[in-house]
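Chains adopt folds. We examine one example:
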Amino acid sequence: MIESRARSLVSWLDRRGWVTWERTAPAARILIVTNAWPDREFPARAVFMRYTVEGLAAAGVEADVLYVRGYRGIGCYALGSLAMALMAGAKPQKYRLVHSHAGETAPVARCFWSAPVLATYWGSDLLGVPEGSLRTRLRFALRARLLRAHSLLMAATTTKSAQMEDVLPARARARNWVIPDGVDRAKFVPRDRNDARQALGWRTDEPIAISVGRPVELKRLWLAERAVDLAAAQVPGLSWMAISDTPPEQMPDIYNAADVLVHTSVSEGSPNVVKEALACNLPVVATGAGDIPELLDDVGPSAVCEPDPGALAAAIVGCLRAGHRSNGRERTEHLSLERTTERMLACYRRLGVTAPGR
């Protein structure tokens, strides 16, 4: 009876596009629950999640992926929680581990009561945001406070940076792993700038600064645009492009075609945009959110700046006048998809899940 109800509910949610199966594998013993996934509706959203799952599969660990489409309303989280509770009763031996990605899905995953639950947090879900409207700051602060407390209910947690780990309760920190997302260095590789521009249809005779991310308040794209405007007074022809919702397969060419990445986010864990740019040897000018200071340590030309248009502009001019690409790729070898996958597998092994032959 429980199994029939669980199957019916999940099928019903899937048909309505509220909680959907994005990946299933007969041999899967891990269930990944996330509120961001690249699909036909949003092909550029959270592409790193697909890379993460593919990295696990390449290492011999198959996972089913359940996508809670929270952008369609908070009710999706409530329905997802009910589905998880029913699935736990219907097939208690199906999954040996449930792994939630993004803080908002941790309470949903925790409703799967018949297996250990591992929660991965992404950044502002634990850290909140230091800037923005009063309403925005209060909303993020309340969410962060609740999710930090909720982390105590998890078998283990992972954070993208040590900064995020530091805000967890002491008991949760004791079983936390710091594991940033890895970069597929077979896809993100340095390429001749003009070849990349020709592939994209960009002009080859002007310097271009880019910012990558959705145009939301927390990304502070206005700050990047203002900084580039100031830099353009010293660098003739410099222009700025905001890259958003671009097909994932174009991103390596975009990093290689640009002259500098300007990243001005308010709050981060370990931004994939910066790591992908570094893998392509693109100079980066960024504010110091998350682990960006660590990522840019000993990378040149690149800079970490205060969130001030003038300081950012000076750093942009410095990168462009250097006249060469950065050494970002050699400085971020430890962030390959293979290495971060191995770190995640070590966490899984601690929780009793092993890959075949390991």
User: Anything to note?
Assistant: Residues 97 and 157 are 13 Å apart (CA to CA). The chain has two domains: 2-182+336-350, 193-335. The chain has a mean pLDDT of 92.
